Amino acid sequence: MTEFVSLLKVVEFVESNNYDVIVLDTVPSGEALKNIIVEAAAISV
User: Fold this and answer.
1) Would you state the pLDDT for residue 2?
2) How far apart are CA 31 and CA 38, in angstroms?
3) pLDDT recorded at residue 39
4) 34 to 5, 7, 20: CA distances (angstroms)
5) Are 14 and 43 in contact (CB under 8 A)?
6) Could you read off the pLDDT of 1-43 as tens digits, one per residue?
């Protein structure tokens, strides 16, 4: 659940267009990669 809430915060930053670069520093796991892919798909919609 914490990961989901964190990704919602990332969406908030992306939608605000108030950033130069967003860096996601996560542990190398399949779960982290899945969350990034799902988030990228949601943003592009």
Assistant:
1) 73
2) 11
3) 67
4) 15, 12, 24
5) yes
6) 577 787 788 888 888 888 788 777 777 677 777 777 776 777 6
CB-based burial label for 16 (10 Å; 0-12, 13-18, 19+): exposed
Which residues touch 33 (CB under 8 Å, ≥6 apart)? none
Domain chopping of the chain, boundaries: 2-43
Q: Which two tokens stand for residue 41?
A: 């798909």
Q: How far apart are CA 30 and CA 17, in angstroms?
A: 28
Which residues neighbour 39 within 8 Å (Cβ) at sequence distance 6 or greater? 7, 10, 11
